[in-house]
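Figure caption, in words: inputs first, then the predicted bound structure.
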Amino acid sequence: MTEELLFKKIKHAVGRAVADHGLIAAGDRIAVAVSGGKDSYTLLHILESLRQRAPIRFEIMALTIDSGYPGFRTDIIGGHLKEHGFEHHIEKTDHYGIIKAKRREGSSYCSICARLKRGALYELAQRFGCNKLALGHHLDDFAETLLLNQFFVGSLKSMAASMLADNGVTTVIRPLVYVSEAQIIEFARLKSFPVVCCRCPACGEADMQRKRMKRLISELERDIPHIRQSILRALANVQPRHLLDKRLSVPPAAPVDGALGEPA
Ligand code: SF4
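Bound structure (iron/sulfur cluster present):
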């Protein structure tokens, strides 16, 4: 696929997500979290392209958190953002020092690191007058998160395309919800984005269980080509009457003949 066609496809998918979930409104100022990875560069460039042709006015800026891992090349990220004319800010933090002090031996870096990073992003979004924070989670992240929560947490949940953050002020949006990771990998390659690793001890290593979900979905994909899209459709097609959560109980209705998926 050519770069132009792929760009159009991704832009169309993001436009659909924006429309389906009301992700962007007139007057929004959106902070885009740019980590230096393929997902966040893609998100930023696609949102900017939409912004330029949108019938409504909204602003975007890029925010990067430098967690303090030695060797993290924020200069490369900053250079790219400057070259493309993005308003941006890189926040230097000592998250690495905090993690080293607080992390228990053998426990994951990611849980503390991600929490610190998210908190810093909320704080920065407010500081820079942004009412929304855009994150680069894509279709595969949604599908994998759903499976992870079912298999390891015992909960039927994934992520929201739009939700008010815990700070009660910032709305988190995920405009890449309809874009697959394969499309992003190809797009980042064609655009030669200067992808940098944050140099954390877990850099480039998706968490073990997430890797297993990724593998599982890829294996199933051989027999079920549209498995990711189907999982995503399921997330938008919840049937509370066919679940067991009493909090979602609705009055009993007349039985439906031949309900799919029920054992004989
Ligand atoms: S992969 Fe690295 S930067 Fe990302 S959350 Fe984990 S420790 Fe933090």
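Residues 3-239 form a domain with the Rossmann fold fold (CATH 3.40.50.620).
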